[in-house]
Design goal:
alpha+beta, 4 helices, 33% helix, 39% strand
C-alpha cells in the first residue's frame, strides 16, 4: 500500500507529465474546485477557482509547443493526516533560454488537502528567480 507521501508524489508527477504533454484534462485532475494559484504571469492577485485555473493553461501550452521543456528535477513532499505541501524545482524553458541561463529553474510549491480520502491540490505557486543570484 502506498503512503500518503508516495500518493502525492505520483499525483504531482502525473500532473507534470500532463503539463508537458499539453493534456488539459490531466492538468486539472486532482485539483480542488476552490484552488488558488499564484503564477508567473498576471493577474497579480492570482487566480481563484478551477475555471480560472483552467483558463491559464492554453497560452502556456501554445508557448510550450515551440519546444519548451517542463520536467521535474527535484521534488520534496511532506504529508500530514489531512494536509500536505510539496516543493519542486523544474526545468521549464526552451533550448535557447537554457543556453542563455542553464541554471534557471521554475520553483513550484503546492498545498494539498485530503477530501473524502483523496488528495487534491488547493494551492499552487509558480515562480522564477528575478535577475542574477545575490550573495
Amino acid at each position: 500500500m502506498q503512503t500518503d507521501d508516495e500518493r502525492i508524489r505520483a499525483l504531482i508527477e502525473l500532473w507534470a507529465e500532463a503539463v508537458h504533454g499539453g493534456d488539459l484534462k490531466g492538468v486539472l485532475a486532482d485539483h480542488a474546485e476552490d484552488i488558488v494559484m499564484f503564477d508567473v504571469p498576471p493577474p497579480y492577485e492570482g487566480v481563484r477557482g478551477l475555471d480560472a485555473y483552467r483558463d491559464t493553461w492554453p497560452p502556456f501550452f501554445q508557448w510550450q509547443a515551440n519546444g519548451a521543456s517542463f520536467e521535474i528535477e527535484s521534488l520534496e513532499v511532506t504529508a500530514g493526516e489531512d494536509v500536505a505541501f510539496a516543493h519542486a524545482l523544474l526545468r521549464c524553458g526552451t533550448r535557447e533560454e537554457f543556453a542563455a541561463n542553464p541554471d534557471n529553474r521554475l520553483r513550484l510549491t503546492l498545498g494539498l488537502r485530503k477530501d473524502d480520502g483523496r488528495w487534491v491540490v488547493v494551492h499552487e505557486h509558480h515562480s522564477f528567480p528575478v535577475g542574477p543570484a545575490v550573495g
